[in-house]
Amino acid sequence: MLEKNKQSAATAEEKYYLASQWQLMRQKFRRHKVANLGLAILVVLYFMAIFADFLTPYTAEERFNTFSYRQPTPIHFVDTQGRLHWPFVYGITQARDPNTLQMIYKVNTGVHLPIRFFVHAQPHKLLGIIKTDIHLFGVDKPNGIFLFGTDKLGRDVLSRILYASRVSLSIGLVGVAVSFLIGVTVGGISGYFGGAVDMFAMRLIEFIGGIPTIPFWIALGAALPRNWSVVQIYFAIVVLLSLLGWGGLARVVRGKLLELREYDYVLAARVSGVGEGAIIRIHLLPNFASYLIVDITLAIPGMILGESALSFLGLGMRPPAVSWGVMLQDSMNIHSVALYWWMVIPALFVIITVLTFNFLGDGLRDAADPYKQ
Amino acid sequence: MLNYLYRRFFYMILLFFLLSIVSFFVIQLPAGDFINTLAVRYVQSGRSVTPELLNNLRHQYGLDRPMMVQYFHWFWNFLHGNLGWSFSYQQPVAKLLGDRVVLTASITLLTTIFVYLMAVPIGIYAATHQYKPGDYFFTLLAFIGMSAPSFLLALILVMIFLKAGLGVGGLFSPEYIRAAWSFGKVVDLLKHLPLPIIIIGVSGTGGLTRVMRATLLDELGKQYVITARAKGVSEIKLLFKYPVRLALNPIMANIGGLLPAIISGGVIVELVLSLPTVGPMLFQAIINEDIYMASSLILILSTLGLIGTVISDIMLVVVDPRIRFVSKE
Q1: β-strand A76-78 against B85-86: which pairing, if any?
Q2: Phi, psi of A205, deg, nearest 5
Q3: Which of A303, A354, B291, B315 has a beta carbon 3.0–4.6 Å from B147's, enabling a disulfide?
């Protein structure tokens, strides 16, 4: 028994020394619980974005004209008499306040609307291929189920949040991809050539870093033509966000290149006649790829925040496109926020997404640092 | 040291010049100009609009001159304190901005001080109590602060304040809004300032706390700390004499990035809280294509950001003897 333990300890140690850089990183990352939780939440969020049309009871534009600003209805399992039921929501009766003429909704505990699963509703194309009209859940018509309430036009906030996540979550990735391309190019050229080119590139990055971003984003956002299509606006915003966002990545690439090119193994490779391109690709890039992944992860939240800020101000994505920032536009009016608090729910999604990206990036940074235990 | 400061100063002037170019031309990007906006307004109010009238107006406002001429005209006047003419208010921009620029600058300055006053002690506490409940608490708080965009924070706090029946928005009580500056008005202002300062400062505080904690932890693990402790130096003296001083370095260097971020976040928070500062003014000016107003405001805001770089340069010289010595040679 003892013998066996010793042996397994020996192999574990051996494994540690034989493990590749990436295996070591993965081991360290697994120990970072918060980062793992962050990763899990992000996977769920992106999954929800991809399957939004199946997971939502309604589409983003489906209007229930009679249900303007209806409050969220929680799911119940137990009724007022304490009896257990199939999950249901209570019905709602509506009336006008005789003084303010405002619509008031009252929960009617006499009416139970059982939640149906895999119901037939609006047709949609799952993953853009499979034609179907099946939605995960819903209630019998003409009633509606609004877990997060409805907005001014009577649209389901939950459904809109999920559809909006497609824009909000993807714009971070696309924006970072563009920033990454600019950053790697400028940083690579700067770090590789050094001298005057490097000096110029660094000053440029410093210059861009010193600019307060939001005033410039407002100015640039206002320059986007009103008649552009949703897709055009989407990519224009990506470019706009990347324009001021590539500096950090370029700095990392340049710093690492400058540091690594002095190393003996690079000299050894050069002496052995390996070409410059191959040195960068085979020997240098894998060496700092881990750092790049960390910086990319930490750059995504900035992009997501930028898009929601711009759309919130009405200068980014605009209706009929829907993003979290677009949804928050309705809460720009402080008084409507006080009356209809559920209009701020998209803000929670922004915060959770950004928070989990930050946790993930933090965990990756710890994992990528070879000196950290 | 002087040599180093001269060099940095010269570089700042160059940056200021570049910023003025960017500020001016970014505002020129939207299609059309103020005369188009004006023409729409004329048509709506039933006045006849002829191409001659529009051309005359363009000539009157100097909008028919080449772009470069317009730029130099504006920039030259800007240097002399003349910020141009506001089309939508029909008043000189400088006259409209007076108090607003002062208020924005004060908010920015106070927020920066707030961020440092919060971040440094919390960072020290978190680093000296690593992996204890206090550290976890502040780490979580810092992450949430970094992740919540200031305008959302403003919205949520506004909601909470309104639910609690407290007034929000503005920087002055109604009786002081139009009053001239007096002691009472300043006191009233100080009562209204904490909310915007906290909202704008939260994300910077979160970020700086993380930096402070990480660098201090690096220092605390070094051998000179262990040696000093072995020799019996008291914990407080040991902490503040070297590791904290060293950990302050990156924090000081950070102000160059922090100030633009505070200004940037401030613009949008001021909009949400509708403060009588430059944020809402800038937004309106850009939407209305009030170009001189918008360009001047953007240049003022970016210049405020530049000051951050200047301060961080000076602070680094003060805090870090290495920079002093190297530049002496």
Answers
A1: unpaired
A2: -65, -40
A3: A354
**What mean pLDDT do residues A281-306 have?**
82
Distance CA A225, CA B27 (A): 14
- Other C-beta atoms closer than 10 Å to the C-beta of A76 total 15
ipTM of the complex: 0.83
Q: What value does the mean pLDDT of chain B take?
A: 82
What pLDDT score does A317 carry? 84
Report DSSP state, residue A150: B
pLDDT tens for A121-173 read: 777 777 777 777 777 777 777 677 777 878 877 788 888 898 889 888 899 89
Contact B305, B15 (CB under 8 A): no
Domain carrying residue B180? 99-289
Q: What angle do CA B291, B296, B298 make, to 5 degrees?
A: 95
- Which residues 300-329 of B are in CB contact (within 8 Å) with A? 301-302, 304-306, 308-309
CA dihedral for A326, A331, A332, A333, sign (positive or negative): positive
* pLDDT for B329 beyond 50: no
Does residue B314 fall inside a structural domain? no
- CATH value at residue B103: 1.10.3720.10
Min Cα–Cα distance to chain A from B183, Å: 30
Residue B36 lies in a domain: no
CA distance B15 to B303: 9
- Look at residues B75, B33, B64 and name the one whose alpha carbon lies nearest to residue B288: B33
Helix, coil or strand: residue A273: coil
Q: What are phi and psi of A96, to 5 degrees?
A: -100, 140
Tell me which of B130, B140, B147, B277 to substitute to probe the interface with A (most A C-beta atoms closer than 10 Å): B147
Terminal-to-terminal C-alpha distance of chain A: 30
Interface of B with A in 5-24 (CB under 8 A): 15, 18-19, 22
Q: Write down the H helix ranges in A313-344.
A: 324-328, 334-339
Tokens for A19?
A: 């493990």
Examine residue B57 and state whether it is found in any structural domain, yes or no.
no
Domains of chain A are: 65-155 (no CATH), 160-367 (1.10.3720.10)
**Does the beta carbon of A147 lie under 8 angstroms from any beta carbon of chain B?**
no
User: What are the C-alpha distances in Å from B305 to residues B267, B274, B311?
Assistant: 13, 22, 10
